Amino acid sequence: MNKDNGFPYDGADGDGDGPADALTADTLLEEELRQAAAVLDPVPDLLRQLALEAYALHDPDARIAELTFDSLVDALPVRGATGAPRMLTFRAGALTVDVEVTGDGLIGQVLPPGSARIEVLGGPGAARPVAVDTLGRFTSDDPPRGPFALRLRTGTEVIVTEWLRA
């Protein structure tokens, strides 16, 4: 309320009780907390470098392909079967990418088939290109180590899968 006439008041006079003053106090508190964290628990240089390299892999125009099947989670276990390949299915609109992950590499197919380029993303290193044939099939003789994702480039769009561990 306005101190003089009893009408609503915006509080921007710097007396400490209005929204503008609360915003300033929040900003100051946030800055103090940032400084304290930088001194008491700094981000390791290696982690900072990995974060920058991971962001460099970010493609703002890409659509995310949803993981719709993962044999580690969705498949029924088979008695006595050991070392079975991991089967993954990703979907983005009408496009489906089926991938089999083995100790020898990746085997997969893009449906519906068409011209496409696939890259295997695997952390701070360069993306590894994988050839796609006219039926949408692809193979990679280099098994993913650690987290990986696939980037699919069709003639009109870029699609990236979720990051998974091999």
Describe the structure in your own words.
The structure is a single chain. This protein has 166 residues and is an alpha+beta fold. The chain contains three helices and ten strands, in the order ααβαβββββββββ. The protein has helices at residues 19-40, 45-56, 71-74; strands at residues 63-70, 86-92, 95-102, 105-111, 117-121, 128-130, 137-140, 147-153, 158-161, 164-165. Strands 1, 2, 3, 4, 5, 6, 7, 8, 9 and 10 form a ten-stranded mixed beta sheet that branches. The longest helix has 22 residues, at 19-40. The termini are far apart.
Number of E strands: 10
Strand fraction equals: 25-35%
Structural class: alpha+beta
Uncertain stretches:
none
Computed over alpha carbons, the radius of gyration is 25 Å
Terminal CA distance reads 62 Å
Describe the structure concisely.
With about 170 residues, the protein is α+β, with helices and mostly antiparallel strands.
Tell me the layout of helices and strands:
Elements: H1 19-40, H2 45-56, E1 63-70, H3 71-74, E2 86-92, E3 95-102, E4 105-111, E5 117-121, E6 128-130, E7 137-140, E8 147-153, E9 158-161, E10 164-165
Parallel strand pairs: 1-9
Antiparallel strand pairs: 1-2, 2-3, 3-4, 4-7, 5-6, 5-8, 8-9, 8-10
Kindly list the characteristics that best describe this protein.
about 25% helix; alpha+beta; 10-stranded mixed sheet; elongated; about 170 residues
